[in-house]
Specification:
By secondary structure, the protein is α+β, with helices and mostly antiparallel strands. The chain has 20 helices and 28 strands. It has a 7-stranded mixed beta sheet with strand order 3-7-1-14-11-12-13, with helices on both faces.
C-alpha cells in the first residue's frame, strides 16, 4: 500500500460477507411473493425446425394453469440478432417455443407435456466452417455470416513483412464451447403495481435490463424498476436484457399476478449463453533475432443460433494489441450455427486468441533457439504502441514488469530446460504466456456515474449501479468513497443495483466497474467533500484550501486539533448530495497486462496432467483492495485452468443435442485440482482510473491455458493446438507420437 493512502491498497473483507455466509442475503432466486405464478418454457427438441401448428388448449385447460403464451401473442420485438421472444422457427435444441404460467412448478411442468406441436424439421449445421459454405443450411435469409462479410483490420504491408522474415510459421488452433457454470441459475421475478413493473433479476447490468424490457413492452423506462441486491455469480452469462425477463413481465401484466421464471441446471446449459468456440489460423513472420515482421490471422467464431455481437472481433483484439509489429492483417468471421447462442463469458473472446497466439510464439521461440521469456520481452507492445492502427498510446503499461517479476518469482532462469528432460513415467515441465487485455477499460460514451450522500451524523451513503457479482465491487466503491472523503470505511454504506435510486455505471462486465463505477463514485465523493469544506471554511472562518478531512475530522493544515465531520455536516440545510460523471479521454486506450508461469506434471501412463504451481502476475494500474485483487487473480486463473484441462460443452453431431448438461458430466475443476497459486500485483498507476486503478476480474482467465499447454510440451515433447487437454486427449497424443 502506498503511504499516500489510508484505505486504498489495504486488505479488506467483503462488506456484505456476513449477509452472504449467514443466508441473510436475498438473491433474485429467494423472492417468493403471494399469489406468484411459476413459469416454464417449452423448448425445441430439434436444432432447426419450423412450427407447422401448435395446440395449447389442453395445457390451458389444466387446473392451476393461468396462462399459456406462444409466438402468436408476442410483441413485435426482435431480440439480439434475429432472436424473437418466442419463436415459430426453432434454430437450436432448447429454443423458446411457448411459456406456461401456473400455480406451482409441478403444474407448469405437467402443462408443457400437454402442448402439442407439429414441427417441420429443417436441415441444420453445427460446424462454423461448414456454415460458411454456399450450400450450407441457412439459419437466416441473408446467410450464416453475421454482417454478410468478414471484418478486416490491416496495418502496414503484411506480405512485405513476410518477405523480410527469416522464419515464417503458420498453424491453426481450436477452442471449445463452455458454460459459465454459475451457482445461481438464470432467474427473474416480475410484479406490476399501479402501472409500474418491478423486476428482481439476477443480472450484471440492471440499467440495460431496464432499457431492454421498456423497449420490448413499449413503455417508459421510468415505469420499469430492476433490482439485484445479490448475485450468485455471473461470468458474463447475464450481462443485459434477456427474453426471459420480458416473458416474466408479460405473464405478470396479463395475469395481474407476480410471475417467476427460474432455469433449472439443464436449461442453463441448453438455453443460456456460452463461451463461443473459435478456429484461429495464424501466420507469423520473424527475424533471426526474434523481431516480429508480420502477423496474419483468420478467426472463425461459432456464435450459435443468436449472437449478441460479432465475437470473432473479440478474439482478434488479442492479435492486434499484445505484440508490437508494423505489419498486421486480420479477418474475422462471426458465424451462426444451430447451437445455443454464443455470448459474453469472462474475458470475452480473449482466451480464444491468447491460447493460440502464446503457443504459436512458444513454437517460434523454440525454432529460433530463443528463451520464451526473451522472445516476449523483445516483442511486447510498449506504452507508446497502444492502438497500433490509430497511433494512440496505452494509458499505462506494466507488461515488462509483469514478465520480469513473474520470471523472478518463478525462478525461470534457473529452471528453464529443454523439453522432455525429466526421467521416469511422470514428467515435469514449465511454460509461460503473456496477455494484453482491453477489459478493465473505459471508452467515451460509457456510463460512469455515482452519487454520495453525507448525512448529518457524518455517515456516508454511496449509490451505485454496480452489480456485485462476487468480486467485492460494493466494497471497492466504499473504499474509493472513504478514501476521497477522508472518513473511516466503517462509516460508509453502499446501496447498489436498484434502478429507482442508483445511477448507471455500465454493467459489471468486462472488468470495468473499478474504472466506470469507481470513477463516478470518486467524483461524487469529491463533489460532496467540496461542499463539506465550503461549510467548514465558513464555520472556521478560513479558506477551504487550508482544510483537509482525515479520519472523519476536518483539520486546518498543520494543526492537530480538528472538528468532527458530523458537526460540520449538521450545519448543512439538508443531506449533502455529491454527484459525479466520468468522461473517458480520447487520447489514450486502456489495457491491463499479465504474465503467467506454470509448472506441471504429466503421467505418461494415464495422460493425467497436474498443475503444481502457477505464478500469475497482473498489472491493474493500482489495487484498490489487495485481498479482493488477489482473490480475483486466483479465481480467474482457476477458471482458466478448467478451460485448458477439463471444460467442454459437447453437442451431438447427429442430433444437435447437448450430451453433458449437468455438473456430473460437464467437468468443472474442484478444490482438489487447484495448485499453489502465487498472485503478484504490478501497479503502473493509470492516469485516469480512480486512484490509478483499472479492473482485473477478467484477464486472469486468459493466460493459464497457454502457459499450461506450453508446460505440457516442455514435459513430454508433444504440442497441442486444441483444448481441453483431458487425460484421453493427452494419452492419445502420446501414443500417436510414439507410433
Amino acid at each position: 500500500m502506498s503511504s499516500q493512502f489510508k484505505i486504498i491498497g489495504t486488505r479488506q473483507p467483503k462488506i456484505d460477507a456476513f449477509e452472504r455466509v449467514t443466508a441473510r442475503a436475498k438473491y433474485a432466486s429467494d423472492f417468493y411473493l403471494p399469489r406468484m405464478l411459476y413459469c416454464k418454457v417449452l423448448r425445441s427438441p430439434y436444432p432447426h425446425a419450423r412450427i407447422v401448428s401448435i395446440d395449447t388448449s389442453k395445457a390451458s385447460a389444466l387446473p392451476g394453469v393461468a396462462l399459456v403464451l406462444t409466438h402468436k401473442e408476442m410483441p413485435e420485438y426482435v431480440w439480439h440478432i434475429g432472436m424473437p421472444l418466442l419463436t415459430d422457427v426453432a434454430r437450436f435444441v432448447g429454443d423458446d417455443i411457448a411459456v406456461v404460467a401456473a400455480k406451482d412448478e409441478e403444474t407448469a411442468t405437467e402443462a408443457l407435456d400437454l402442448i402439442k406441436v407439429e414441427y417441420q424439421k429443417l436441415p441444420f449445421v453445427l460446424d462454423p466452417e461448414e456454415a460458411l459454405k454456399p450450400n450450407a443450411p441457412k439459419l437466416y435469409p441473408d446467410g450464416n455470416l453475421i454482417g454478410g462479410k468478414p471484418a478486416v483490420v490491416s496495418r502496414g504491408d503484411v506480405e512485405k513483412g513476410f518477405t523480410e522474415a527469416d522464419l515464417v510459421y503458420e498453424a491453426t488452433y481450436r477452442t471449445n464451447m463452455l458454460q459459465h457454470a454459475t451457482r445461481e441459475p438464470r432467474v427473474c421475478v416480475a410484479v406490476w403495481e399501479a402501472g409500474k413493473l418491478t423486476l428482481w433479476d439476477s443480472t450484471q447490468y440492471s440499467f440495460d435490463v431496464q432499457r431492454g424490457v421498456a423497449k420490448a413492452l413499449n413503455m417508459p423506462m421510468s415505469k420499469v424498476r430492476v433490482v439485484c441486491d445479490f448475485m450468485g455469480g455471473g461470468f458474463g452469462d447475464r450481462s443485459g436484457p434477456e427474453r426471459y425477463n420480458v416473458l416474466a413481465a408479460l405473464v405478470a401484466r396479463k395475469t395481474g399476478r407476480p410471475a417467476r421464471i427460474e432455469f433449472d441446471r439443464e436449461e442453463n446449459f441448453t438455453a443460456g449463453h456460452h463461451r463461443y468456440p473459435v478456429i484461429l489460423s495464424l501466420k507469423y513472420g520473424v527475424k533471426k533475432d526474434g523481431t516480429l515482421t508480420a502477423l496474419q490471422a483468420k478467426a472463425i467464431a461459432d456464435m450459435g443460433a443468436y449472437a449478441h455481437f460479432q465475437g470473432a472481433g473479440g478474439t482478434m483484439e488479442v492479435i492486434m494489441s499484445t505484440y508490437r509489429c508494423p505489419n498486421m492483417k486480420g479477418e474475422s468471421y462471426s458465424v451462426t450455427t444451430n447451437k445455443p447462442e454464443g455470448g459474453f463469458m469472462r474475458c470475452v473472446g480473449h482466451p480464444q486468441g491468447t491460447f493460440p497466439q502464446e503457443i504459436h510464439m512458444d513454437i517460434i521461440a523454440e525454432k529460433l533457439g530463443m528463451d520464451p521469456v526473451e522472445l516476449r520481452l523483445k516483442n511486447y507492445a510498449r506504452l507508446e504502441d497502444g492502438d497500433q492502427f490509430r497511433k494512440i498510446p496505452f494509458s499505462s503499461n506494466g507488461m515488462e514488469e509483469c514478465i520480469k517479476r513473474g520470471a523472478e518469482t518463478f525462478k525461470w532462469n534457473e529452471r528453464w530446460k529443454k523439453p522432455v528432460s525429466s526421467a521416469g513415467p511422470v514428467k515435469s515441465g514449465i511454460g509461460m504466456a503473456i496477455h494484453a487485455c482491453r477489459h478493465g477499460a473505459i471508452a467515451p460514451g460509457w456510463p460512469s456515474s455515482g452519487m454520495v450522500r453525507v448525512n448529518s451524523d457524518g455517515t456516508i451513503n454511496v449509490f451505485t449501479g454496480t452489480s456485485d457479482i462476487g468480486g467485492g465491487q460494493k466494497g471497492t466503491m466504499a473504499m474509493i468513497a472513504a478514501e476521497e472523503l477522508g472518513v473511516p470505511l466503517k462509516n460508509v454504506f453502499v446501496t447498489a443495483t436498484d434502478t429507482d435510486v442508483t445511477t448507471d455505471t455500465f454493467g459489471t462486465t468486462g472488468s470495468r466497474q473499478t474504472i466506470t463505477g469507481g470513477t463516478g463514485t470518486r467524483l461524487a465523493a469529491a463533489d460532496a467533500k467540496n461542499q463539506l469544506l465550503d461549510i467548514a471554511a465558513a464555520e472556521l472562518k478560513t479558506d477551504k484550501k487550508n482544510l483537509v478531512i482525515s479520519e472523519g475530522t476536518v483539520y486546518a493544515r498543520g494543526s492537530e486539533k480538528g472538528v468532527p465531520l458530523d458537526q460540520i455536516a449538521a450545519k448543512a440545510p439538508g443531506p449533502i448530495m455529491g454527484r459525479g460523471v466520468g468522461i473517458a479521454p480520447t487520447n489514450m486506450i486502456f489495457h491491463s497486462f499479465a504474465a503467467h508461469f506454470a509448472e506441471v506434471e504429466v503421467d505418461t501412463r494415464t495422460g493425467a496432467v497436474k498443475v503444481l504451481k502457477l505464478v500469475a502476475v497482473h498489472d491493474l494500474g493500482r489495487a484498490i483492495n489487495a485481498m479482493a485483487t488477489e482473490n480475483q487473480i486466483e479465481g480467474g486463473a482457476i477458471q482458466g485452468m478448467g478451460f485448458a484441462l477439463a471444460e467442454e460443452q459437447i453437442t451431438d453431431r447427429a442430433t444437435g443435442i447437448c450430451i453433458n448438461p449437468s455438473y456430473l458430466d460437464y467437468k468443472v475443476l474442484t478444490i482438489k485440482d487447484f495448485p499453489e497459486i502465487t498472485p503478484v500485483i504490478v501497479e503502473s498507476v493509470d492516469p485516469f482510473g480512480p486512484f490509478g486503478a483499472r479492473g482485473v476480474g477478467e484477464p486472469p482467465y486468459s493466460v493459464p491455458a497457454p502457459a499450461i499447454t506450453n508446460a505440457i510440451y516442455n514435459a513430454i515433447g508433444v504440442r497441442f493446438s486444441e483444448i481441453p487437454l483431458t487425460k484421453g486427449v493427452v494419452l492419445a497424443s502420446l501414443k500417436k507420437a510414439k507410433s
